[in-house]
């Protein structure tokens, strides 16, 4: 399973990249706003800055909600850097835009997916990724992981090449559940990724190894 980091914070992106396990980055307009990135030129430059830190795919989201606007913005974003994947919301104009952009060999990530039906439409339109939002479903008492499993199963059964990019991951346990559910990618906050490292037996074992070494060599 690939790991993307879900942030527009350059320090966190660098930290994950330095760890050597990062496969890409996802952003959205809220994450860009959180970093105080405003204005079209600054936003575009920020995407380029992110691409220059990581080796993998970087999702950049369109703001337009009409077909013409989405494809114009999508083409501009894709032209910024070969690593850019154009992120498009799962609405009617978005599905049409995904179809158009994929016919131009522009890669897309269909976002705000909350049902298998939406994922099916995005895949049929040629999306590179679909992003089902786990945490936001959990927030309303619906099991987000179930949706990941349902979509992964559907894509396998019908041979879709679209990858399941599990999004809205809130904690480390979600990542482990995504593995079982068959997600191709998990996009996570840095804290959820580093949480995978934690185990009290590792800490205890290391402490013992060092104590034993120091008894003889210290
Ligand atoms: C990433 O592609 C999504 O935009 C993001 O994971 C949403 O996460 P949230 O539900 O925590 O805002």
Explain this structure to me?
The protein has 218 residues and is of the alpha/beta class. The protein is 55% helix and 17% strand. The protein has helices spanning 10-19, 29-34, 40-53, 67-80, 92-103, 116-125, 134-139, 144-158, 172-181, 190-194, 200-217; strands at residues 2-6, 24-26, 57-61, 84-89, 108-113, 129-132, 163-166, 185-188. An eight-stranded parallel β-barrel has the order 1-2-3-4-5-6-7-8, surrounded by six helices. Helix 4 (67-80) links the parallel strand 3 (57-61) and strand 4. Helix 5 (92-103) runs parallel beside helix 6 and helix 6 (116-125) runs parallel beside helix 8 (144-158). The longest helix is centred in the last third of the chain and has 18 residues, at 200-217. It starts with a strand and ends with a helix. The relative contact order is 0.12. The chain binds erythose-4-phosphate. Erythose-4-phosphate (E4P) binds at residues 6, 26, 28, 111, 131, 133, 135-136, 167-168, 187.
> What is the 3D form?
globular
**Low-confidence regions:** none
What's the total helix number? 11
Give me the secondary-structure category: alpha/beta
What small-molecule ligands were found? erythose-4-phosphate
Number of strands: 8
User: What is the share of helical residues?
Assistant: 55-70%
User: Beta fraction of the residues?
Assistant: 15-25%
Q: Compute the gyration radius: what is it? A: 19 Å
Q: What does the main sheet amount to?
A: 8 strands, parallel, barrel
N to C succession of SSEs: EHEHHEHEHEHEHHEHEHH
Order of strands, main sheet, comes to 1-2-3-4-5-6-7-8
The average pLDDT score comes to 97
Distance between the termini: 42 Å
């Amino acid at each position: 399973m690939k790991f993307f980091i879900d942030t527009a914070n350059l320090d966190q992106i660098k930290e994950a990249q330095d760890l050597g396990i990062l496969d890409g980055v996802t952003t959205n307009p809220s994450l860009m706003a959180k970093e105080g990135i405003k204005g079209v030129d600054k936003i575009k430059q920020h995407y380029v800055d992110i691409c220059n830190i990581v080796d993998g795919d970087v999702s950049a989201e369109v703001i337009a909600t009409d077909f013409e606007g989405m494809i114009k913005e999508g083409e501009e974003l894709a032209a910024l850097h070969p690593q850019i994947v154009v992120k498009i919301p799962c609405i009617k104009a978005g599905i049409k835009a995904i179809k158009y952009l994929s016919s131009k060999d522009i890669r897309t990530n269909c976002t705000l997916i909350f049902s298998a039906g939406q994922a099916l439409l995005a895949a049929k339109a040629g999306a590179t990724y679909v992003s089902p939002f786990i945490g936001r479903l959990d927030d309303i008492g619906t099991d987000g992981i179930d949706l990941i499993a349902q979509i992964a199963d559907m894509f396998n059964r019908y041979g879709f090449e679209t990858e399941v990019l599990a999004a809205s991951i809130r904690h480390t346990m979600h990542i482990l559940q995504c593995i079982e559910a068959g997600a191709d990618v998990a996009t996570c906050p840095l804290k959820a990724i580093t949480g995978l490292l934690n185990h009290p037996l590792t800490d205890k074992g290391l402490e013992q190894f060092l104590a034993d070494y120091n008894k003889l060599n210290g």
